[in-house]
Write a structure and sequence with these properties.
Number of domains: 2
CATH class of the largest domain: Alpha Beta
CATH topology of the largest domain: D-Maltodextrin-Binding Protein, domain 2
Distance between the termini: 47 Å
Shape: globular
Protein backbone atom coordinates (compact mmCIF):
# COMPACT_ATOMS: atom_id res chain seq x y z
CA UNK A 1 0.00 0.00 0.00
CA UNK A 2 1.08 3.56 -0.61
CA UNK A 3 2.32 5.46 2.45
CA UNK A 4 1.02 8.86 1.27
CA UNK A 5 4.12 10.54 2.67
CA UNK A 6 3.62 13.64 0.53
CA UNK A 7 0.14 14.31 1.92
CA UNK A 8 1.18 13.60 5.52
CA UNK A 9 4.20 15.90 5.31
CA UNK A 10 2.27 18.83 3.87
CA UNK A 11 -0.55 18.40 6.42
CA UNK A 12 1.97 18.41 9.27
CA UNK A 13 3.65 21.59 7.99
CA UNK A 14 0.24 23.29 7.86
CA UNK A 15 -0.68 22.02 11.32
CA UNK A 16 2.52 23.34 12.94
CA UNK A 17 2.74 26.42 10.69
CA UNK A 18 6.43 25.82 10.18
CA UNK A 19 9.20 23.42 9.21
CA UNK A 20 11.05 22.97 12.52
CA UNK A 21 8.22 21.55 14.67
CA UNK A 22 6.79 19.57 11.75
CA UNK A 23 10.17 17.96 11.04
CA UNK A 24 10.51 17.01 14.71
CA UNK A 25 7.05 15.42 14.71
CA UNK A 26 7.84 13.52 11.50
CA UNK A 27 11.27 12.36 12.72
CA UNK A 28 13.13 13.85 9.77
CA UNK A 29 15.63 16.69 9.52
CA UNK A 30 14.55 20.27 8.88
CA UNK A 31 16.61 20.55 5.65
CA UNK A 32 15.07 17.32 4.33
CA UNK A 33 11.53 18.53 5.00
CA UNK A 34 12.28 21.96 3.54
CA UNK A 35 13.66 20.34 0.38
CA UNK A 36 10.61 18.08 0.20
CA UNK A 37 8.29 21.10 0.31
CA UNK A 38 10.29 22.82 -2.42
CA UNK A 39 10.15 19.72 -4.67
CA UNK A 40 6.40 19.37 -4.09
CA UNK A 41 5.75 23.00 -5.02
CA UNK A 42 7.92 22.57 -8.12
CA UNK A 43 5.98 19.42 -9.02
CA UNK A 44 2.68 21.31 -9.02
CA UNK A 45 4.30 24.53 -10.21
CA UNK A 46 2.52 26.56 -7.52
CA UNK A 47 3.25 27.96 -4.06
CA UNK A 48 1.50 26.05 -1.28
CA UNK A 49 2.60 28.26 1.66
CA UNK A 50 3.52 31.87 2.23
CA UNK A 51 5.67 33.08 5.11
CA UNK A 52 3.98 35.56 7.46
CA UNK A 53 6.39 36.51 10.21
CA UNK A 54 7.73 33.21 11.50
CA UNK A 55 4.72 31.20 10.36
CA UNK A 56 4.03 29.28 7.16
CA UNK A 57 0.41 29.89 6.17
CA UNK A 58 -1.30 27.94 3.34
CA UNK A 59 -2.05 29.90 0.18
CA UNK A 60 -5.40 29.40 -1.51
CA UNK A 61 -3.79 26.62 -3.56
CA UNK A 62 -2.37 25.19 -0.35
CA UNK A 63 -5.82 25.12 1.25
CA UNK A 64 -7.20 23.19 -1.72
CA UNK A 65 -4.25 20.77 -1.53
CA UNK A 66 -4.86 20.19 2.20
CA UNK A 67 -8.56 19.55 1.64
CA UNK A 68 -7.83 16.89 -0.98
CA UNK A 69 -4.95 15.42 1.04
CA UNK A 70 -7.20 14.85 4.07
CA UNK A 71 -9.81 13.20 1.85
CA UNK A 72 -7.13 10.89 0.42
CA UNK A 73 -5.94 9.89 3.91
CA UNK A 74 -9.54 9.33 5.07
CA UNK A 75 -10.18 7.04 2.09
CA UNK A 76 -6.98 5.16 2.81
CA UNK A 77 -7.89 4.75 6.50
CA UNK A 78 -11.39 3.57 5.59
CA UNK A 79 -9.89 0.97 3.25
CA UNK A 80 -7.41 -0.20 5.91
CA UNK A 81 -10.23 -0.51 8.46
CA UNK A 82 -12.29 -2.60 6.08
CA UNK A 83 -9.33 -4.88 5.31
CA UNK A 84 -8.68 -5.34 9.05
CA UNK A 85 -12.32 -6.29 9.60
CA UNK A 86 -12.27 -8.75 6.72
CA UNK A 87 -9.09 -10.43 7.96
CA UNK A 88 -9.61 -10.98 11.67
CA UNK A 89 -11.89 -8.45 13.39
CA UNK A 90 -9.49 -8.77 16.29
CA UNK A 91 -6.69 -6.23 15.84
CA UNK A 92 -6.85 -2.56 15.03
CA UNK A 93 -7.35 0.73 16.76
CA UNK A 94 -10.30 2.83 17.80
CA UNK A 95 -10.04 6.48 18.78
CA UNK A 96 -12.90 7.90 20.81
CA UNK A 97 -13.41 11.28 22.44
CA UNK A 98 -15.65 12.62 25.17
CA UNK A 99 -16.02 15.76 27.21
CA UNK A 100 -14.34 15.34 30.64
CA UNK A 101 -17.58 15.40 32.63
CA UNK A 102 -19.08 12.59 30.55
CA UNK A 103 -15.89 10.59 30.26
CA UNK A 104 -15.61 10.09 34.00
CA UNK A 105 -19.03 8.40 34.02
CA UNK A 106 -18.97 6.52 30.73
CA UNK A 107 -15.38 5.37 30.20
CA UNK A 108 -15.07 3.26 33.40
CA UNK A 109 -18.09 1.26 32.17
CA UNK A 110 -17.64 0.97 28.40
CA UNK A 111 -13.86 0.64 28.07
CA UNK A 112 -13.49 -2.52 30.19
CA UNK A 113 -16.48 -4.05 28.38
CA UNK A 114 -14.89 -3.26 25.02
CA UNK A 115 -11.54 -4.78 26.04
CA UNK A 116 -13.20 -7.98 27.18
CA UNK A 117 -14.39 -8.52 23.60
CA UNK A 118 -11.39 -6.97 21.78
CA UNK A 119 -8.42 -7.38 24.15
CA UNK A 120 -5.80 -6.73 21.47
CA UNK A 121 -7.30 -3.50 20.18
CA UNK A 122 -5.45 -0.22 20.59
CA UNK A 123 -7.91 2.18 22.23
CA UNK A 124 -7.03 5.86 21.97
CA UNK A 125 -9.10 7.95 24.36
CA UNK A 126 -9.44 11.74 24.36
CA UNK A 127 -11.13 13.95 26.96
CA UNK A 128 -11.51 17.45 25.55
CA UNK A 129 -13.98 20.30 25.29
CA UNK A 130 -16.82 19.84 22.83
CA UNK A 131 -15.24 22.39 20.48
CA UNK A 132 -11.92 20.50 20.49
CA UNK A 133 -13.68 17.16 19.91
CA UNK A 134 -15.40 18.56 16.81
CA UNK A 135 -12.01 19.66 15.50
CA UNK A 136 -10.42 16.27 16.22
CA UNK A 137 -13.30 14.46 14.51
CA UNK A 138 -13.22 16.72 11.47
CA UNK A 139 -9.46 16.24 11.11
CA UNK A 140 -9.73 12.46 11.42
CA UNK A 141 -7.84 12.27 14.73
CA UNK A 142 -10.78 10.49 16.38
CA UNK A 143 -13.42 8.21 14.89
CA UNK A 144 -16.31 9.09 17.19
CA UNK A 145 -17.17 11.69 19.79
CA UNK A 146 -19.74 11.62 22.58
CA UNK A 147 -20.98 15.01 23.76
CA UNK A 148 -23.97 17.28 24.23
CA UNK A 149 -25.57 19.71 21.79
CA UNK A 150 -28.22 22.40 22.09
CA UNK A 151 -29.11 22.44 18.38
CA UNK A 152 -28.12 19.22 16.65
CA UNK A 153 -29.41 19.98 13.15
CA UNK A 154 -27.73 23.35 12.80
CA UNK A 155 -24.55 22.53 14.66
CA UNK A 156 -23.52 19.21 13.14
CA UNK A 157 -24.54 19.26 9.48
CA UNK A 158 -21.11 17.83 8.57
CA UNK A 159 -21.39 14.78 10.85
CA UNK A 160 -23.61 11.75 11.29
CA UNK A 161 -25.52 12.16 14.56
CA UNK A 162 -27.14 9.57 16.80
CA UNK A 163 -29.26 11.06 19.59
CA UNK A 164 -29.14 9.12 22.85
CA UNK A 165 -31.14 11.22 25.30
CA UNK A 166 -32.71 14.57 26.06
CA UNK A 167 -31.52 16.16 29.29
CA UNK A 168 -32.84 19.19 31.14
CA UNK A 169 -30.49 21.93 32.26
CA UNK A 170 -31.52 22.67 35.83
CA UNK A 171 -30.68 25.16 38.53
CA UNK A 172 -28.93 23.46 41.45
CA UNK A 173 -29.14 25.03 44.91
CA UNK A 174 -28.39 24.01 48.47
CA UNK A 175 -31.31 22.47 50.35
CA UNK A 176 -30.47 24.87 53.18
CA UNK A 177 -32.03 27.68 51.18
CA UNK A 178 -35.41 25.93 51.08
CA UNK A 179 -36.04 27.62 47.75
CA UNK A 180 -39.61 26.88 46.74
CA UNK A 181 -40.70 26.37 43.16
CA UNK A 182 -43.99 25.72 41.43
CA UNK A 183 -44.85 22.74 39.28
CA UNK A 184 -45.42 23.66 35.64
CA UNK A 185 -46.40 21.43 32.74
CA UNK A 186 -43.46 20.22 30.66
CA UNK A 187 -40.83 20.82 33.33
CA UNK A 188 -39.25 17.97 35.28
CA UNK A 189 -38.71 19.90 38.52
CA UNK A 190 -40.34 22.71 40.52
CA UNK A 191 -39.96 25.92 38.49
CA UNK A 192 -38.40 29.19 39.64
CA UNK A 193 -37.93 32.56 37.93
CA UNK A 194 -34.18 32.92 37.42
CA UNK A 195 -34.53 36.71 37.36
CA UNK A 196 -35.30 36.68 41.07
CA UNK A 197 -31.80 35.31 41.70
CA UNK A 198 -29.77 37.93 39.82
CA UNK A 199 -27.82 38.97 42.94
CA UNK A 200 -26.63 35.45 43.72
CA UNK A 201 -23.11 34.12 43.11
CA UNK A 202 -23.22 31.76 40.12
CA UNK A 203 -20.64 28.97 39.95
CA UNK A 204 -19.86 28.25 36.29
CA UNK A 205 -17.51 26.17 34.19
CA UNK A 206 -14.67 27.78 32.27
CA UNK A 207 -15.20 29.17 28.79
CA UNK A 208 -15.16 26.55 26.07
CA UNK A 209 -17.45 24.05 27.78
CA UNK A 210 -20.94 23.38 26.42
CA UNK A 211 -22.52 24.02 29.83
CA UNK A 212 -20.82 27.42 30.09
CA UNK A 213 -22.29 28.37 26.73
CA UNK A 214 -25.75 27.46 28.03
CA UNK A 215 -25.15 29.46 31.22
CA UNK A 216 -24.07 32.54 29.25
CA UNK A 217 -27.30 32.37 27.25
CA UNK A 218 -29.38 32.10 30.42
CA UNK A 219 -27.60 35.13 31.89
CA UNK A 220 -28.86 37.26 28.99
CA UNK A 221 -32.34 37.41 30.57
CA UNK A 222 -30.96 38.95 33.78
CA UNK A 223 -31.25 42.73 34.18
CA UNK A 224 -27.53 43.06 34.92
CA UNK A 225 -24.38 40.97 34.60
CA UNK A 226 -24.27 38.36 37.38
CA UNK A 227 -21.46 37.66 39.79
CA UNK A 228 -19.68 34.49 38.69
CA UNK A 229 -16.90 32.22 39.88
CA UNK A 230 -15.28 29.89 37.33
CA UNK A 231 -14.17 26.28 37.74
CA UNK A 232 -12.86 23.51 35.49
CA UNK A 233 -14.84 20.68 37.14
CA UNK A 234 -18.61 20.28 37.41
CA UNK A 235 -18.04 17.93 40.36
CA UNK A 236 -16.36 20.77 42.27
CA UNK A 237 -19.36 22.97 41.52
CA UNK A 238 -21.81 20.35 42.85
CA UNK A 239 -19.81 20.09 46.09
CA UNK A 240 -19.66 23.85 46.56
CA UNK A 241 -23.39 24.20 45.92
CA UNK A 242 -24.04 21.57 48.59
CA UNK A 243 -22.05 23.78 50.98
CA UNK A 244 -24.20 26.78 49.97
CA UNK A 245 -21.25 28.57 48.38
CA UNK A 246 -23.41 29.66 45.44
CA UNK A 247 -25.86 28.38 42.86
CA UNK A 248 -25.22 26.82 39.45
CA UNK A 249 -26.61 25.20 36.32
CA UNK A 250 -26.15 21.50 35.60
CA UNK A 251 -27.56 18.72 33.48
CA UNK A 252 -29.91 16.43 35.36
CA UNK A 253 -28.16 13.37 33.90
CA UNK A 254 -26.53 11.06 36.43
CA UNK A 255 -26.34 13.73 39.14
CA UNK A 256 -23.42 12.97 41.49
CA UNK A 257 -24.08 11.54 44.92
CA UNK A 258 -23.77 14.91 46.64
CA UNK A 259 -26.25 15.31 49.51
CA UNK A 260 -28.09 18.51 50.22
CA UNK A 261 -28.75 19.74 46.66
CA UNK A 262 -32.12 20.54 45.07
CA UNK A 263 -32.80 20.60 41.31
CA UNK A 264 -35.13 23.27 39.98
CA UNK A 265 -36.42 24.02 36.49
CA UNK A 266 -35.93 27.42 34.85
CA UNK A 267 -36.73 29.21 31.61
CA UNK A 268 -39.82 30.15 29.64
CA UNK A 269 -39.66 26.63 28.21
CA UNK A 270 -37.56 23.72 29.45
CA UNK A 271 -33.87 24.28 28.70
CA UNK A 272 -32.64 21.02 27.22
CA UNK A 273 -29.82 19.57 25.20
CA UNK A 274 -29.27 16.30 23.40
CA UNK A 275 -26.63 13.76 24.29
CA UNK A 276 -25.22 12.43 21.03
CA UNK A 277 -22.67 10.24 19.29
CA UNK A 278 -20.91 11.92 16.36
CA UNK A 279 -19.14 10.14 13.50
CA UNK A 280 -17.86 11.49 10.18
CA UNK A 281 -20.25 11.29 7.25
CA UNK A 282 -18.88 8.65 4.90
CA UNK A 283 -16.52 7.29 7.54
CA UNK A 284 -16.29 3.51 7.74
CA UNK A 285 -17.91 2.09 10.88
CA UNK A 286 -16.08 -1.14 11.62
CA UNK A 287 -17.61 -3.97 13.60
CA UNK A 288 -15.60 -3.02 16.75
CA UNK A 289 -16.61 0.64 16.29
CA UNK A 290 -20.26 -0.36 16.08
CA UNK A 291 -19.81 -2.47 19.21
CA UNK A 292 -18.48 0.60 21.05
CA UNK A 293 -21.49 2.61 19.88
CA UNK A 294 -23.80 -0.15 21.11
CA UNK A 295 -22.07 -0.13 24.52
CA UNK A 296 -22.67 3.61 24.83
CA UNK A 297 -26.34 3.14 23.94
CA UNK A 298 -26.72 0.35 26.51
CA UNK A 299 -25.18 2.57 29.17
CA UNK A 300 -27.71 5.30 28.46
CA UNK A 301 -30.67 2.95 28.41
CA UNK A 302 -29.86 2.13 32.02
CA UNK A 303 -29.04 5.64 33.18
CA UNK A 304 -31.23 8.06 31.21
CA UNK A 305 -34.93 8.75 31.17
CA UNK A 306 -36.86 6.40 28.83
Amino acid sequence: MADFREQKYIIEIAKEQGIAKAAKNLYISQPALSQFLTRTEELYNIQLFERIGKRLIPTYAGEQYLKCAKQILDLDQNFRDQIADIKTLKKGFLSIGSTPGRGKDIFPVILPAFYRKYPQFDLRVYQETAQKLEELLKNGDIQMAIMTSENVRQQFSDFHVEELATEEISLIVSKRRKLQGVYKYGFRYPWVDIRQLENELFLVLNKGSRLRSVADNIFKVLPSAPRIMEFSSIDTIWRLVSEDMGIAFASDFNAPAVPGVDLLSIGATPITWKFIILTRIGGYISVPSQYMIDLIKQFYKKEVYP
